[in-house]
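Researcher: Here's the sequence for the chain we discussed earlier.
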Amino acid sequence: MNALSRRDALIGAGIGAGVGLATLATPAWAQTMAGDEVDRIVTGFMQAFQVPGIAVTIVRPGQPVLARGYGVRELGRPGRVDADTQFAIASNSKAFLAAGIAMLIEEGKLGWDVPVVRYMPDFATSDADVTRLMTVRDLLCHRSGLPLGAGDLMQFPVSDHSRADIVHGLKYLPFERGFRTGYAYDNILYVVAGVLVERISGLSFEEFMTRRLLRPLGMRMDMAKVMANPASLKGTNVAARHARLGPPARGIGAVQVVEPDEGTAGSPAGGILSSATEIAVWLRTQMAHGVTPDGRRLWSDANAAEMWTPQVITNTGTGPSPDDPGRSVLQAYALGWFVGDYRGHRLISHSGGLSGQITQTAMLPEQGIGVAVFTNIEDRLSAQLRSALLDVALGVPTFDWLAATRRIRAKNEAELRAAAGTGDFTVPPGGPSLPLTAYAGRYRDPWYGDVVVRATGDKLAIDFTRTPVFKSVLEPFGPDSWRTRFAPGAGEDAVVAFVIEDGKPTRLKLRALSPLADFSYDFQHLTPVRVS
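Model: Thanks. This is the structure I predict for it:
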């Protein structure tokens, strides 16, 4: 997931709202040639990696928007992906929230650099000084000091945690580094920002976003209705979800249909659905500094600059290389966006991942170029496909992004095979040091809630009580340790180690089983202590 900066130079760039770098009409034959190249690239990726469906958007100055769909919405069903098929854009939604906050700031209801506690007296972190100092800006730029993905198990998979529970749980999450001293991506502070929007606007987060942003942008999604009844999307022009569920682990194996597993409480961090056609309007509005294609201003030039200004460096590198000509020299996070460079041009981008879908949005603002890639498969190939489409839009010499994707996938699979072989994860030596009944009990984590372990005959079973799909028989996995085997598609499995003190299990230490597990399965942040 990514998003980054924007400097004052962008304000005067003159991109968008009818002002572009290229003012001459593009010949129809040139548009057709670009479209043919896009078709070739997309279908090549689909065939190579068994992708059920993809939608793409390319915005270029002086040219009609290219918005196309490919393949099917769901494996085994005939419905085709088209330019109007809705995809869950996940963390690409963060930039929408940042824009919504910018609009409230322009109404004088919020301030970027005003402490959050000024608006939310109940806001609290595990450090009193950080609580006092954290501003609205800090909520959006991943520099709080919290560890990567902190608290995400309250959101993924579906749990019974409400937004109020998530805000309350924040005070129990320890910091990994000093406040504003570095970058670590999180979702929890975006949920806090969503609650802040609710408190200030007097509307639910979903109603605010629908009225103030989605409708003016011409987007069809009614967030309030969808979040109240996610099943209402069934049977409509909405992309299904797909993933490889093993063996030996998620990310390898045959492509299968999976169900959405995100709850509604986390929608401020990633709850928007969009199509290739609709996202083009969003990209054009962004590059026009808040002015929609029909001339409506949603936010000011000044706040457009704020949202693209880097706040924290995310990584530095050596820049382009023969095997990765798009590699950034420097990347940072702004407010809902990553900022970096691509082939010598400033890149504003983000990605989004949920179970079964991964999406990308990207802009080269000075060139007036925007690209989006929506895939209905849990596979990170969308990043390389995005780069391939940026190259088409730029008209630069071609690079074999398909081959690069194959290399990345081979490396990731080799890591997983090293840990799990060709079948299942190798069970470490060792076993229980106590009778199984000694491990049974209720273990309580201050931010997540209760984890219950039961002994039944010669087996243990575990119940993450706040997460319905996280129930499993436990299988031995080393000294005083077990692994889960959740139902297929139910997120990632965990390793559960019992800490023995004075001859008794007193607490649990957990981690994700797979080395490739998404960071949102942050079992390692749990510190459950035995309470009964």
